Amino acid sequence: MGILTQSKNPFVQKTPLLVSSRIHSPYAARIETLWRETREQIIEVFPKAPGLPKNGKQQV
């Protein structure tokens, strides 16, 4: 019988943290925290970007 271990890379960061050095208000801090926590779920709901037109002509 042995000890089971799981290796984990401590240098892997899933989402870049874009945090300003100073929070301007408690409301701004709360919004930033909510965005960090729910970013991936929100991005999954958005439709895919349409990309460039295939015919090469711009449509206005």
Secondary structure: elements and pairs:
Layout: H1 26-45
Concise account of the structure shown:
This protein is mainly alpha-helical.
Beta-strand percentage range: under 5%
The poorly predicted ranges are: none
Distance between the termini: 70 Å
How would you sum up the major sheet?
Answer: none
Coarse structural class: mainly alpha
| Inertia-based shape | flat
> From N to C, what is the helix and strand string?
H
What is the alpha-carbon Rg in Å?
A: 21 Å
Number of helices: 1
Global mean pLDDT: 79
Helical residue percent? Answer: 25-40%
Total strand segments: 0
Output the keywords.
60 residues; mainly alpha; 33% helix
Question: Can you give a write-up of this model?
Answer:
It is flat and about 65 Å long. It is mainly α and 60 residues long. The chain is 33% helix and 0% strand.
